[in-house]
């Protein structure tokens, strides 16, 4: 279900969740917007294979409890990191910048 044309939301409506991934720290550089779904490779995310994801934040939506799962290898393999809020710098938070696949989960 989608938001009504006037922008209002009806009770019980599920809203999609989107995340913005940046190739620079502090939400700088190229932006890649991902909606709920699975992205097994960087190219599936619309990124070049040389792209390094360094920060990310969710697009704020009401009634949403989104999460994003970052994987160190393609096809959702390797180390998995689950995040539920924005990250100004993956490296500064102790995470590796090596992200090759992403799974975006939405909520209510």
UniProtKB/TrEMBL annotation:
<feature type="domain" description="Beta/gamma crystallin 'Greek key'">
    <location>
        <begin position="17"/>
        <end position="60"/>
    </location>
</feature>
<dbReference type="Pfam" id="PF00030">
    <property type="entry name" value="Crystall"/>
</dbReference>
<dbReference type="InterPro" id="IPR011024">
    <property type="entry name" value="G_crystallin-like"/>
</dbReference>
<protein>
    <recommendedName>
        <fullName>Beta/gamma crystallin 'Greek key' domain-containing protein</fullName>
    </recommendedName>
</protein>
<dbReference type="InterPro" id="IPR001064">
    <property type="entry name" value="Beta/gamma_crystallin"/>
</dbReference>
<comment type="similarity">
    <text>Belongs to the beta/gamma-crystallin family.</text>
</comment>
<keyword id="KW-0677">Repeat</keyword>
<dbReference type="InterPro" id="IPR050252">
    <property type="entry name" value="Beta/Gamma-Crystallin"/>
</dbReference>
